[in-house]
Amino acid sequence: MANKVKEAWKAGKAVVNGWLAIPNAFSAEMYAQCGWDSVTVDMQHGVQDYLSCVACFQGIQPSGVTPMVRVPWNEPGIIGKVLDAGAQGVICPMVNTPDEARRLVQYSYYPPQGTRSNGPIRAGVYGEAGGYQKTANENILVIPMIETKQAIENIEAILDVPGIDGIYVGPSDLCFSYGLEPKLDVEDPFVLGIYEKLLKETSKRGIAAGLHNGSPAYAHRMIQMGFKLVTISNEVGLMVNAAKAAVKQARGG
Amino acid sequence: MANKVKEAWKAGKAVVNGWLAIPNAFSAEMYAQCGWDSVTVDMQHGVQDYLSCVACFQGIQPSGVTPMVRVPWNEPGIIGKVLDAGAQGVICPMVNTPDEARRLVQYSYYPPQGTRSNGPIRAGVYGEAGGYQKTANENILVIPMIETKQAIENIEAILDVPGIDGIYVGPSDLCFSYGLEPKLDVEDPFVLGIYEKLLKETSKRGIAAGLHNGSPAYAHRMIQMGFKLVTISNEVGLMVNAAKAAVKQARGG
Amino acid sequence: MANKVKEAWKAGKAVVNGWLAIPNAFSAEMYAQCGWDSVTVDMQHGVQDYLSCVACFQGIQPSGVTPMVRVPWNEPGIIGKVLDAGAQGVICPMVNTPDEARRLVQYSYYPPQGTRSNGPIRAGVYGEAGGYQKTANENILVIPMIETKQAIENIEAILDVPGIDGIYVGPSDLCFSYGLEPKLDVEDPFVLGIYEKLLKETSKRGIAAGLHNGSPAYAHRMIQMGFKLVTISNEVGLMVNAAKAAVKQARGG
Amino acid sequence: MANKVKEAWKAGKAVVNGWLAIPNAFSAEMYAQCGWDSVTVDMQHGVQDYLSCVACFQGIQPSGVTPMVRVPWNEPGIIGKVLDAGAQGVICPMVNTPDEARRLVQYSYYPPQGTRSNGPIRAGVYGEAGGYQKTANENILVIPMIETKQAIENIEAILDVPGIDGIYVGPSDLCFSYGLEPKLDVEDPFVLGIYEKLLKETSKRGIAAGLHNGSPAYAHRMIQMGFKLVTISNEVGLMVNAAKAAVKQARGG
Amino acid sequence: MANKVKEAWKAGKAVVNGWLAIPNAFSAEMYAQCGWDSVTVDMQHGVQDYLSCVACFQGIQPSGVTPMVRVPWNEPGIIGKVLDAGAQGVICPMVNTPDEARRLVQYSYYPPQGTRSNGPIRAGVYGEAGGYQKTANENILVIPMIETKQAIENIEAILDVPGIDGIYVGPSDLCFSYGLEPKLDVEDPFVLGIYEKLLKETSKRGIAAGLHNGSPAYAHRMIQMGFKLVTISNEVGLMVNAAKAAVKQARGG
Amino acid sequence: MANKVKEAWKAGKAVVNGWLAIPNAFSAEMYAQCGWDSVTVDMQHGVQDYLSCVACFQGIQPSGVTPMVRVPWNEPGIIGKVLDAGAQGVICPMVNTPDEARRLVQYSYYPPQGTRSNGPIRAGVYGEAGGYQKTANENILVIPMIETKQAIENIEAILDVPGIDGIYVGPSDLCFSYGLEPKLDVEDPFVLGIYEKLLKETSKRGIAAGLHNGSPAYAHRMIQMGFKLVTISNEVGLMVNAAKAAVKQARGG
What we know:
Order of helices and strands of chain A: HEHEHEHEHHEHHEHHEHEH
Structural class of chain A: alpha/beta
Strand content of chain A: 15-25%
CATH class of chain A: Alpha Beta
Helix content of chain A: 40-55%
Distance between the termini of chain A: 47 Å
Radius of gyration of chain A: 18 Å
Low-confidence stretches of chain A: none
CATH topology of chain A: TIM Barrel
Largest interface: C-E, 42 and 42 residues
Number of strands of chain A: 8
Oligomer: homohexamer
Number of domains of chain A: 1
CATH superfamily of chain A: Phosphoenolpyruvate-binding domains
Largest sheet of chain A: 8 strands, parallel, barrel
């Protein structure tokens, strides 16, 4: 199955990404039909584990949207499992050093680029015609999260690690790490300056930069600023906001 | 636990009701915190069964919102089970005759009013101080759905069945039954005329009328028209609408 | 697999029965190892459905204890399903008339005694050597619950229905039905008089009588009185009582 | 989504149908990719319930194979629920009289042909372009099981009920009902004579006949005999047979 | 939500803690209502994983009892996930060195004390008024398990690690580590001597000491000895003991 | 419970092993009855996690077949958990150095051989008579996977690590690691030469060698070559192959 994110990036386009915190295939199935280019199962902060990720992938599959995962940690067991389950992109939290980036690459790619173990139990069914294993290294996106002061300080060395396809910025952890209030849709010029730097460094290496956003308006601005992957909140966040507004309106508020 | 819907109705107020189609406790837990007076697990058209209903009830519980169920059918087994699980209201589809209404009442109440079997496995924990069984018949709402031509024709006899606390109108089935296109938020004067009749007949018997709505604006109008319980779509509908709008906005649309 | 309850009854002995309300295979597995003759999954008032019943049966299986089910209602779909899953006894609530007893028998037995449909998906694996279908009608216990005034008034006709192996008394519903407070371990002479009558009528037909009890002491008395199957509360009840006592003792109470 | 079974039948072709007893989306997903025209979730004798059926449907969806259900019983609640979940065919056990056939039709079709309630929570997403509700009555197959002596005796009246698209023969129950040993792939001339009669009566009314088979060889013969839908065992049966053979061969047997 | 364990410790009081091995929300819900100050989901030796922990937390929530977790290992992914799910205390097995203690602290606290990533998906809903992130480091208990000879030898350095709120003693592993038989409720003076030392060292640093117990009587003694958190067996252990006793008594034993 | 693999190896016999990728107890239960000596839950490449492993073990238990696990990674948390759940053998992927082998041994054995933590929540129930903890180190098999060039180069040092009971060869990863196409049932003389070397080195140390096979015929050859544990594909692979063949045959192909 073609990786729509990879294709968009090759064409210089930005993708709009959905984010799944609810561990349920039906919810994922309906959400995947809303116009996203890709949908990411959040196994770090979402209420998700490996089997709920598989269920969400099954829900996503008919939509043709590219399935990705944010893994809970930079650990070979779970990275292998989500790729076997069909993830076409791995977003990994808290990659702060080039060594951590190299380990992420190693866990994600088959030999000779990496040491991923063979056994694409579900991914193999939806793999490219020539055989999943032959194209997996080309087809899968490896995306470390840049979300600490340490990572910013190491950014050039991290980006120089071969096999990194993109980065994903976690604004609230980034703020936390600099002693600022943890939040999304930041307007602080200091943080926006970091974004500029990240866009410059990724851009000159042909690497895409992604960002987690709280609102569609901010996400739109960030696309215009140069981000190539923007996520908007998550499905439970959009649902809760919509519900609160609906209740208020129904009460005449 | 006090039944907030019953209290509101005693005070002549309308309640705003949430509707759950996603079979997941986390999703229900978050949705219950959005300002609803009550939340109903939809076991008829939602992706719900008995155990997912129990899970949703556990998610709802901390919010203090009144839990209700739309049962899949007018059948004693499942009505007993959802009441034992803690439902404080039973909305029953397709009640078209006084006999069907009497059976609904019989299945929902303990003796002597009905024949519900004793064993409130979860409800008992959150029951009134004096003992769940002593107050259950007072505390539980029995709400037949009025959603067919046949039911409209039998409406007075149905409403005269002792033990009916309210009715709930399913607009799309009602339209279907009259040969109209099945939809919510109907503007057809013929259907609105039926609503007027239902409000009049329920009102003169001290019975509340509820309605399923597609939008908060229509729900608000229906409260003003006299409905005492308005549901707005369901959680997956609000989520999907919000997501489609967010994707469009993020793309600059 | 031999039906230990049937064997005990043939030998004139009483069996001690466990009762499962927690929908979990591990909990059932541990509970089945506590010395019971049989363990019953309570699909009526327990937090159980069909798939949790199958899971509990899988947990029970290694213990060799006889698995039974209390079905939620006298309905052919679920009775067939639990038998296919491996139930060796069906306890059915609210059997109040000989016609209801006949329907229960019909749903539970293969032709020619009944109309149960063939397909013992899990039961077949653990069936008798000669083939499950050949011995099922002999091996399965059909046990209507006697728990209303109406059932007591019809008791002789109910017991005369061919295929009834035993009855099971639900004391709290029986009390409710007579306008008494619903409870277990009843000392009211009127109710005890009913028990005497039931023991006499079952005994003279070679049918066993069972009873749901709240405490082991009362259960022991009832065995001595003539009951051939005694259940003690359920696993969650025993657990909660033990926990409350332990907390109190740990606090020095 | 086009109904491949309906299309094949219109073209006079037979379909080969898979059968799911394992309540798991992954298993269903893999099985759906094996070349079947349709796959049926067996909620009667399979280890399936409503939510496992939804999960299996999600697993089946990407394959494009037509999803059907054998419901546990001729009951409006569950028939509505599986259709809402996306079933494109309903196989209903033990339809023995024209009245039972009429009730099955009533539960399966929207007005005016039937009384199915509106709310295709999952089916609506994959419905035809013009709107699911507009085409559902055309697109869904209603298939009573003919599996008793009584049904054979009533066959003409059953087949004359408007809305019946096909019948499905359960050989083991049919045998049971006639006092024969319950089994599949029957060679008894008496039973084969019944098949001939069923093929003749269905054929002259433009109704398809289906059959449950134990082996692919017998299924092939039955296609040649005139059956238009043949199921081969189920996924767990094929798996177990393959495993036993593999173990034997690995041991050199 | 106030942390009742922290409040009790500030007031110099001991808490009585429940322990959950059954992966089920209903079981947890009932157990939480038995009088415990806190209830801990045992993800190490209990039959629990992350999603069952979330379910148990949902079951516990209405009781107001403080939810804690014993994580399976000292690993940042799972520690972050259980805190996001709402754990107010983390009990971590096999902390044997000050470095391991420092890592536990790092994984458990937000910056600047630690490197926990921001995203309290469920915890945020029940957080303190001022915002979960602002008070989490104050509100969460970090409790390494002291259960090996190596840990005892390193105890002072471990206790000196900033951010340690308490320790939890695992008697059977401690015995194992010293070559003794692994068991609870130890009377061996050598082991009791270790307890004395642990109580002295923790006490002088204002740190609480907890202990896993087999019986309420021993737990009571340990409170009197100075332990500030005592667990009694687990829910399945109490259930099994109660059931064995009940069976015996019912049989007249 | 006796470890049938260990007993076979002591007697110099080879065992035939089943492999479970489907996360379902019913599927596992049926598969375990097919004649295998042992059945292994594949938590690395199978669609399995810890709770599905427990469920599969419960399904396997009545068959008396020895339950084993392939863990997702060489990590103490999950190794302890599967042993507590009842695994009698641990197959660990990607053990490439003696240090990694030593860590595997350490995580798998109780003191003094290792540092496994005490708490055999489910295993204890089915343990040997004298007490599970006393015999666990004797009864459990520790089996590193040899599946990389690095492991082959380190093979003697790995095999010399005390506590290693056997090795398990993953042919496709082994091929991958040497730059060959990843596949099973390899005929490449170079790879077969590696097998010879492994058989020689294990044999002279009294250690068993196992191999993952794609077909029963190849597995049989490998037994004859000297392998003492042969797995044949997995349950989903055998099912899919059987289904494809059945569909083809039913269509007359």
